[in-house]
């Protein structure tokens, strides 16, 4: 009887501890996220925009359309002069001491390998049936984390290309890991028949 009771208690503990997930359907795509994350939508001007609010109240935003941004193309080195420091947001100034950065007197008169101070790392992967860039900050919690898919349908030549950028900013380690895990579950059922990797 003690063995049976012990097994039941262990099973109850394990079932309570395992995270629960749900699928959010944004119409153009679906994503599997932790159960306590919630969908939101906004009115976009030239694209479909919206996102998810996490349990930590972080906003994970997407831009689905012709002008979706590729965060990796904004990978500026974290080398600052007095002007660059002044342009940082309050949050960036608070987080800066925990990052690999460099402060110089003059950006143009310094002998620095700027590549050593780039903000992001990019990993190429496939999500559903598309090539994707997974972008994470080199300095944990400083900058954006997310995904960019250049072309779900259409082409640049015909000016009808549709892509997606989906990013969160200044995420803690746990939220970043959950977000990347969720991004890898993205499903583009309307578009996968049109294009294959």
Automatic annotation (TrEMBL):
PROSITE patterns listed in its UniProt record: PROKAR_LIPOPROTEIN
Gene source species: Nonlabens ulvanivorans (Persicivirga ulvanivorans)
Stated name of the protein: Lipoprotein
Superkingdom per UniProt: Bacteria
């Amino acid at each position: 009887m003690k063995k049976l009771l012990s097994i039941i208690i262990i099973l109850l503990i394990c079932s309570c501890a395992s995270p629960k997930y749900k699928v959010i359907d944004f119409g153009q795509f679906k994503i599997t996220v932790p159960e306590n994350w919630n969908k939101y939508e906004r009115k976009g001007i030239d694209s479909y925009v919206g996102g998810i609010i996490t349990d930590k109240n972080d906003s994970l935003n997407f831009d689905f359309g012709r002008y979706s941004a590729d965060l990796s193309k904004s990978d500026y080195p974290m080398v600052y002069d007095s002007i660059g420091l002044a342009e940082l947001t309050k949050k960036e100034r608070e987080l800066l001491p925990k990052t690999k950065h460099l402060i110089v007197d003059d950006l143009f008169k310094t002998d620095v390998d700027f590549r050593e101070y780039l903000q992001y790392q990019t990993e190429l992967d496939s999500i559903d049936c598309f090539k994707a860039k997974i972008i994470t900050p080199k300095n944990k919690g400083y900058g954006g984390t997310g995904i960019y898919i250049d072309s779900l349908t259409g082409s640049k030549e015909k000016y009808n290309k549709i892509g997606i950028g989906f990013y969160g900013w200044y995420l803690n380690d746990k939220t970043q890991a959950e977000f990347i895990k969720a991004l890898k579950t993205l499903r583009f059922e309307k578009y996968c028949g049109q294009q294959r990797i």
